[in-house]
Amino acid sequence: MDKLFGIAQNTDFRRRDMAAGGQGAPLVPAFHQALFQHSTIHRVILNLGGIANVSMLPAGDEQNVYGFDTGPANILMDAWCHRYTGQPYDENGNWAAYGQPIRSLLDRLQANEYFSKEPPKSTGREDFNLEWLDEQILDWRNDLEYDELEDTPENIQATLMKLTTRAIKKAIYRSPLDTGEVYVCGGGAYNSHLLEQLRWRLRKHNWSVQSTSALGLAPTWVEATAFAWLAMRFDQQLSGNLPAVTGAKGYRILGTITAV
């Protein structure tokens, strides 16, 4: 692609953070801080891609920004939906809304050790995938608490959505931020049922939930803009990581240039 357009490419943003002992992810909290942090209002930027991650932006406090992956988001819901409906995703969460979460299966999924880890932490499809889900469902079906009447595809989809929203709620309620604004980006921002579930779960502490469109940037543009920002930081020889997020030993200039 670089030869076709005659443009050098800035890529490989994760390697230098990993060389400094970090996990190389998530990298977007530094961008979220630069673009979205507010001087008087606590904000959480929630990215709902394949994996869900949060950026915690304390009001007017640049030193204590942090973030991490909370667990699976679309990666499991999309795969399950495609298997049983043939559709690439559950539009508006309508299929999940038709089902009822299965408590015993949810408890089994939440027993994954990732959910009990303390940040900094990151995860991906190597941990959460359809094969992992199938193994959990098989074990659940052999459990004494198994109820065959609960075992429907739409109920399992509803359970996967609750797995996502519970982990997000836990991350926000256990943060030092007492109340504020949650802005959602990524493809999951268009899952209206998921956002309603988040609003219901977070209303206790008066957290509002809306998409990043309210801040002037469409949900599906945020990640691409973040990596353009990282490229700009590399060009200006400025750091692009947050050690508190990735676990790196210090700030690093991220990326490499691939010549034409």
From TrEMBL:
InterPro entries assigned to the protein according to its UniProt record, in alphabetical order: Anhydro_N_Ac-Mur_kinase, ATPase_NBD
GO molecular function: ATP binding; phosphotransferase activity, alcohol group as acceptor
Swiss-Prot/TrEMBL GO biological process terms: amino sugar metabolic process; peptidoglycan turnover
Superkingdom, natural source: Eukaryota
This protein's name: Anhydro-N-acetylmuramic acid kinase
Lineage summary: Eukaryota, Metazoa, Ecdysozoa, Arthropoda, Chelicerata
